[in-house]
Amino acid sequence: MSAITLVPFGPQHLEALEPMLEDQEVRRHTFVPDPPQPGFARRWLDRYEQGRRDGTRLGFAVVDAEGTLLGLALAPRIEAEARTVELGYLVAPEARGRGVATEALRLLTDWAFRELAAERIELRIAAENTASQRVAERCGYVREGVLRSTYFKNGLRQDTEIWSRLPSDP
Predict the structure, then answer these.
(1) pLDDT per residue as tens digits for the range 49-70
(2) 8 Å CB contact between 89 and 105
(3) I want to staple 149 with a disulfide (CB 3.0 to 4.6 A). Which of 4, 86, 157, 163 is the partner?
(4) What is the mean pLDDT of residues 119-124?
(5) CATH number at residue 91
(6) Phi and psi angles of residue 78, each rounded to the nearest 5 degrees, phi first
């Protein structure tokens, strides 16, 4: 895999993000609506920009050396006082299977420990999303358990696994 970088998620990424939002795997395993309503990407970016201002969330674009958008690496929940952070990621279909998600999560995890002084990082992964579970495991996250029937979209409920990483973990 070629080197990737995390850069602030911004308006310049919206056009390249739109096709990712049409991908069935992204819709199936993330909070992206299915189907996304017109203007969803812009509203999503606006929420992350507001979160950056108030310290409650932050988004990064995952880009390669040429600046091509490969995915997003997100901190959808930052609890500064508790020093707890939830992280997430999504990868464009054409970038999958090349280690992009693993490297993005490693970079995002390092950022959360270094910049936010996180004492606990959490991932919430659909119980049927084995690819994401492998990424979490490769990045040193520990599976803590399953929240049964907590994720609801399009009339269907699914279980969610909780994975975590602490600064003391190897």
Answers:
(1) 999 999 999 999 999 999 999 9
(2) yes
(3) 157
(4) 97
(5) 3.40.630.30
(6) -120, 120
